[in-house]
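Q: What does the assembled structure look like for these inputs?
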Amino acid sequence: MDDPKTPQQLFAPRVRIAPSPTGWFHFGTARTALFNFLFARKTGGKFILRIEDTDQIRSKKLYEDNIKEGLKWLNLEWDEGPDKAGDFGPYRQSERIDIYKKYLQQLLDEGKAYYCFCSPEEIEAQKQDMVSRGLPPKYSGKCRDLSPETVKQYFKEGKNPVIRIKMPNKIIKFNDIIRGEVEFNLDLLEDIIIAKSLTEPLYNFSVVIDDYLMQITHVIRGEDHVSNTPKQIVIQEALGLPRPIYAHLPMILGPDRSKFSKRHGATALSEYQKLGYLPEAIVNFLALLGWHPVGDNEIMNLEQLINNFELERVQKGGAIFNIQKLNWFNNQYLKLLPREKVFAYFEEYMKKYPRKFDLPNTSHEYLNKVLESEILRINNFSEIFTNSDFFFTKNLHYQKDLLIWKGESEQTTKQALIDASKIMESIPEIDFNSINLQAKFYSFIDNNAFYQQNRGRILWPLRAALSGKSASPGPFEIAEILGKKETIKRIKQAIELI
RNA sequence: GCCGCUUUCGUCUAGCCCGGUUAGGACACAGCGUUCUCAGCGCUGGAACAUCGGUUCAAAUCCGAUAAGCGGCACCA
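A:
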């Protein structure tokens, strides 16, 4: 099986997610990672993580960790990458400088790239001039044919050049799995800078070298890279390297249809983790942003996504990030996942994002019971604490009007609470659970014409007294969770309020 | 400005390749029912082929133009 010479292994696709650690793990990156992952798993290929940290100033270890943590949280394990052995490492670009240097030198030696000594100001002026003459602003190519002597001389003078590649004058066509044939006229492109120096390669260059050396077969990335593709192809061709297959994914958009960014709200995966979304829900949601399986079923776990995934079915147009749909998915998974698993996620969540409560008995068991009672009405874990603070605080703040059921008086409300408290008192601590409570209350109601006529006459004041809210889980559930003592205490407080 | 890409309900999308559908599903929304409240659940409903032209007996589907939106045009990635 592991024989590397089997044809399947030889032709197995190799794909990569190549984030740059210059910001928090973004939803867009997560979706690109997911699609690469699904494609790799579906085709029996390899999924590689490569950290693109050639920008030494903006790259931070903190962000790299955040990206890796996010990937793991989503269950998108990579086959090769930093901290994971592979035959094509290192997988961090900052550790590959010597490799790039070699190829840069080769291009220079072959005259396919050249040193450019023009200052940024000089170039700016040149471009201004071109614009004023109605031409597209591009570098003039002034240093293109500098003699070796001149170059030597400039170096002697201490000038710091950049390295540009000679852009051929032709049309580049490439085939995109999602978009079909795309073509660019290179005449419109300048001789792009591929490195700041021999040891400071720039993105478009390092990508080409790494994709080649890591034997990447399919480059699956965001649509914002389509215009980089011709530049990268030029570099490949200059070096005589094979061209990978391209697939450009549609963008994730904000509600105003522009690229999903900070001004649209939270874009970092970790922010949603903090809000308490389940990774299963996020994966499912992300998968359906720009892709759709053949049937109507939308709830799919990772395994089902892998089985159904087809790059060819990926959408061309951008997709708006719709949090309501994410909420719905989260709701579904809260219900669908085995309860133990949800509890495990919740425990993990509470450990990662601890909270302080002023009710003394908030054990894991207690928290799980609260979650159980709230599970149908929350979009994420954090909503438990915003919706139902009454489970965690002994100080309820509400107006006495809240206790009064529609059409009733203070008098009947008070009586209802007194009746309720008596029933509560009559139930021994050991039997104080919602099933018993409901049975006791219902039999009491059945023997009382006034309450039987309209159960709200007693149930509403009870529930309001326990929760201090107009919307909450049912009174028996709340009572069980709170326990006999706290329950009676709250009813008494409500009686005094009236 | 230049280059490229895109366009089906408010949103995500199916259908388009291989013309004939009451244009399907999901989210959201509205109504009804269940119900002490909220949620849930069940049922019902409104809601789209960007525009113009061409081909055809017939166009969401094929062809052409237009418009609009987005992305890119860094010594960032």
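Residues 1-9 of chain A have pLDDT under 50 and may be disordered.
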